[in-house]
């Protein structure tokens, strides 16, 4: 599909397809035109024909490069000289810092005090001055506005800005140019910049395409906003990139008009999607980046047999967190299980248990040996054993084998 030329009608929203068309030309050669590829294994898992656009391949690891660059390119010479300020705990901060340095624009980024050191370090590594202020993103935003006013800096909003939205919309235009026969797309929603820009572009290029949004259950700000309700948001989420407590004032009417529905996903579903991207697609996704896949797997019947576009919007996940997600995924699939055995306190008992497990094809990952629990006989001990198995059937057979040999076995969650 070739990009359609924009018309000259007045825009219905804060921006139009014309703005996205211009943004596409602006970022050409400056931001990676990420690949759109079929995902056969994800298609097999979901029953849909899945195509993924890999925004985790951008220099800063997320789609935020697009909107940040378009906004910075819109500044006057005087504004560039004075510099810019942004508030972010992650991807937006890094994108603003990276492109500001490329354009020779001083950048100040305000981040919450509890921002992980690696994100602070990465942002400073792209040449920005970082100020840590406030316990929350909202408090950091207040500090950013105050410092910006004091220093005469231009505020670069992470989503509620026409230039930023237009930049994110270039992703949708590229997606349909590469895969014009998509039936629908599932797009992440935080403040709404990504889905708003993409919805304008994709609906212009293919009016029949259906757009779905996805939010985490803990932060349903856009869904609540569309219903005219006050959103109830809060809690620790793996998808911190879309953990936004209020939808954008510019993005909400666009979503209301162009998006068919918003799907809410649980933390467990997000974890499973992160794991699926790594295990099945051999690519890294942060929680927010995998939210589209989480929605697809949460409601497969809705998308069965359809050609579905997903955006892997970012891959900036902490390595230790990724390791935890993968292990938890193996536990849910019964490929790692933890057992508690109550046995007699006799020499060689641990060796006997280990031999039994080895003969059953189990790989022992961890053992804990305790004598002092009051709910076991004085001459007894407990063995907590974490083992690796082939699957749920194999795990069940191992437990049955241990019980047949006279051990008292309990499954630990």
Can you give a write-up of this model?
The protein has 413 residues and is of the alpha/beta class. It has 3 domains: 17-61 and 162-328, Rossmann fold (3-Layer(aba) Sandwich), CATH 3.40.50; 84-152, Rossmann fold, CATH 3.40.50.1100; 334-412, ACT domain (Alpha-Beta Plaits). It has 17 helices and 14 strands. The protein has helices spanning 17-27, 40-46, 64-73, 77-82, 91-103, 117-125, 137-151, 162-178, 193-205, 221-226, 251-258, 267-281, 291-298, 300-303, 319-332, 349-359, 392-404; strands spanning 36-38, 49-54, 84-87, 107-111, 129-132, 154-155, 184-188, 210-216, 261-265, 307-312, 336-344, 363-370, 380-388, 408-412. The strands form 3 sheets. The protein has a 6-stranded mixed beta sheet, with helices on both faces. Helix 9 links the parallel strand 7 and strand 8. Helix 8 (162-178) packs across helix 9. The longest helix has 17 residues, at 162-178. The mean pLDDT is 91.
List keywords for this structure.
413 residues, alpha/beta, Rossmann fold, Alpha-Beta Plaits, 3 domains, 6-stranded mixed sheet, 4-stranded parallel sheet, 17 helices, 14 strands
**Average residue-wise pLDDT:** 91
- Uncertain ranges: none
Which CATH architecture of the largest domain? 3-Layer(aba) Sandwich
User: What is the count of helical runs?
Assistant: 17
The main β sheet shows up as: 6 strands, mixed
- Number of separate structural domains: 3
Could you say which overall geometry the principal axes of the C-alpha atoms support? globular
Share of β-strand residues: 15-25%
Using the coordinates shown, work out and report the CATH topology of the largest domain: Rossmann fold
